Every structure is written in structure tokens, then in C-alpha cells.
Amino acid sequence: MTSPVEPARTLTPAVKSALTRYRVIAYIVGVMLLLLLFVAMPMKYLADNPAAMNVIGPMHGFLYVVYLLGAFDLARRVRWGLPRLVLVAIAGTIPFLSFYAERKVSQELNPS
What we know:
Blueprint: H1 13-46, H2 51-78, H3 82-90, H4 97-109
Helix pairs in contact: 1-2, 1-4, 2-3
């Protein structure tokens, strides 16, 4: 028994630009989260030096909000349901998961 093959999706320019914005901010948020967890927090709690935490913490918070806006914009343009949007949004809070989610979304929307 063969499964039906889904035809290749042609992305509109609006979807392409939303995907590019999402990919960039997902990567930035992933790197900032890793810096927060593996540089700033150890410096604060092990070396008693909160300087990095005072800079990286608010930056990550602001960039995560930008990530949420980018994910919402992409979800609106490709008509994802709420569960999918929530999973992509949560990916920005778990170390390394934003990289995985970005790769899966990119492959799904632009399989080339």
C-alpha cells in the first residue's frame, strides 16, 4: 500500500520572510539561553559575580518576547493551530530545543 505524496509547498514571499525572521531569532534566543545557563548563572552563583546575569538575563527576556512575536507571525501566515504554536513557543525556553524546533520548522516549510 502506498501513501499519498504531499505536493511541494510553494512559499509566498510573506511566508519566506516570516520564516527567515523566525529562524534568525530562534538561533539568537537559543544562543542567549545557553549563555544565560552556562555562563551567567555559574558566574552569579559560583563566583558571586552577578554582572553577566544582570546583562544577559534581561537581554534574553526581551529577545524571547521577540521570538514569541516571530513564532506567532509565522504561525499566522502558515495557519498553524494553537497546539503547534504553543510547542514552538515553549521551544525557546528549553536549552538546545530552539535549534531543533527551528530546523524542523524550516524543513517542513521549505523541503529542499
